[in-house]
Amino acid sequence: MIAVDAPETEQLERVEEAQRRRAKRRRRSAVGLVGTHGTLIVISALFLLPIAWMLISSVKSNSAIFVFPPTLPTHPQFGNYGKAVKYIPFARYLLNTVIVSVASVVGTLASGILAGYAFSIMRWRGRDVTFYVVLATIMLPFPVVMIPLYYIFTRIHWIGTLLPLIVPPFAGQFITPYFSSALAIFLFRQFFRSLPFDLVDAARVDGAGHWRILRSVIWPLSRGVILTVGIFTFLSSWTAFIGPLIFLDKQSTFTLSLGLQQYQSIHFTAFNYLMAASTLFCLPVVVLFFVAQRYFMKGISFSGLKG
């Protein structure tokens, strides 16, 4: 028989103990992973349930929607989509929504980039104090300025037109019924401050002014944050309801969020057409989300921690 020294025995025991600990940690990690994914699946199902009900109801008859217990349609009525588009001036409302959304994106980007550059690259007295004042407007909800804005737009005869929804983003208005210009300025400012300042100094040595620096140095490096802010602004303005409800009093200027109300009346509501139109209304948002999902995650990192 070969005797095993005590040190070797202790070493083997330590190795076995380490293996048991690793196996125990792996089991705990697997259990935790299953629990986490299971919880996320349940939460996702709860959020997807209304969307699934909307899709199913959009191909049912109006009476079949309220049958209990709910059933899947045996003969899907895909013609509801065509009838829903003809039930209201869908094309006109869609055009108004596109105009407002595109104008909001362009205006927010234009004002946000300029303000973000001024708060990050340019040096001037009171810069940080002014930035914090602008940032504080994020905490003010739109209903706070809703009545003053309505009074101002009434006096300049903008009520009933798309101008109250188009012009404020270009003017850098911080409190809007959709994506806040102050939040856009914050994102641009934080991203610009994370860029290598040596590039700006080198451009200044070559004689470049602020406009040249912004166009030739900052702009090419900021496509990610520009796309992020543009996506946030588009999604917010596309689904905005409170602003159009207040400022638009003519059906010819309605956006889709207001036009969907026309499927219901005092005595009758075409729920199947409403669900079909709601599906078409949500489709661009869903497509945009999946296409640009990674930029939503980048938008979080763009806010940064740099003071």
Record the SSE blueprint.
Blueprint (H helix, E strand, L loop, with lengths): L5 H52 L21 H9 L2 H31 L6 H10 L5 H14 L7 H8 L10 H13 L3 H9 L4 H12 L1 H16 L3 H6 L8 H4 L11 H21 L1 H11 L4
Helix pairs in contact: 2-13, 3-6, 3-7, 3-10, 4-7, 8-9, 10-14
Overall description:
- The protein has 307 residues and is an all-alpha fold.
- The chain has two domains: 6-57; 86-303, MetI-like (MetI-like fold).
- It has helices at 6-57, 79-87, 90-120, 127-136, 142-155, 163-170, 181-193, 197-205, 210-221, 223-238, 242-247, 256-259, 271-291, 293-303.
- It is flat and about 90 Å long.
Please give the radius of gyration in angstroms: 28 Å
Architecture per CATH nomenclature, i.e. the level-2 architecture of the largest domain = Orthogonal Bundle
The secondary-structure element order is: HHHHHHHHHHHHHH
What's the overall average pLDDT, rounded?
A: 82
Distance between the termini: 71 Å
The number of strands is: 0
Count of DSSP H/I helices: 14
Number of domains: 2
Structural class: mainly alpha
> What is the CATH domain class of the largest domain?
Mainly Alpha
Tertiary shape: flat
- The name of the CATH superfamily of the largest domain reads MetI-like
Task: Determine the fraction of residues in helical runs and give it as a percent range.
Answer: over 70%
Task: Please outline the major beta sheet.
Answer: none
Strand content: under 5%
Task: Report low-confidence residues grouped into runs of 5 or more.
Answer: 303-307
